[in-house]
Fold Lipoprotein.
Amino acid sequence: MRSGIWRSCCLLLLVFLTGCGSSLTIYDITSNPANYNGQEITVEGVYLWKPGNPGLSVLAKAVSTRNDGTDAQPVDSLVWLDEFPAEASANLHRPIDSVYGAVRVKGKFETGAFGPDGSFTSRLVVQSAEAIERVERVEYPAPTEAQPNQVSIYELEKNPSAYNGQTVTTRGMYYWTQASSGLLTTGVQSEKPLGDNVASGVNPQPMGTPISMEGFPPDLSSQLNVGPGNGFVWGLVEVTGTFQTGGQFGLEGRHGSQLILDPASVKPIK
């Protein structure tokens, strides 16, 4: 387990918008909102959606994140978005706690008091939207076949009660971020970075139903895929430990099962 508060920021999604064709940019409408009040416009900007009470759905000039792509925060002036279509967000960045990316949005622009608490001075009632930046995703699944005298990670996920209280050896994908703590999962999905061939990918996310893990040796992380600023770690490992299920385990009790590891048993698999 890793300890301490990690607040190293930030990756910054700052898209240089051109206002292609008849499109405006977020800079245009936030600089002179009165000029566009009541008009139907097409505008380019960075979309950010975050769940919560209240949630957040805005068009921004940029988004800053932690090094692992989580904790996205909008930068500078914002326009509240009503009725943003879910299908338009399918090709954007999708870390575990938000959706964000460069978009082109068509709708009716209005000035006033908008959003859950009326704190936004403008909004766009969205008619249609499309991603400007399309994110390609790559899946890295754990092996489906178990080694001799081992239990498949897929079997643990499917029938956890059959192994409750037992010592098991399995192979799966280790996944760690500050927001998730250590997990064992059936696979990792990562965004393919644009340009540079970065083996660790961008914004990796666990697949399946992750199992919380206690006792993973931090010094083995360097043998796996490590993100910028040590923002994330993931890779195939073999572990042995006591399996428990039917509770609330891991960070904030988010997971229904856990493995308490024998640290000496942990083996990164190339």
User: Anything to note?
Assistant: Helices lie at 26-31, 153-158.
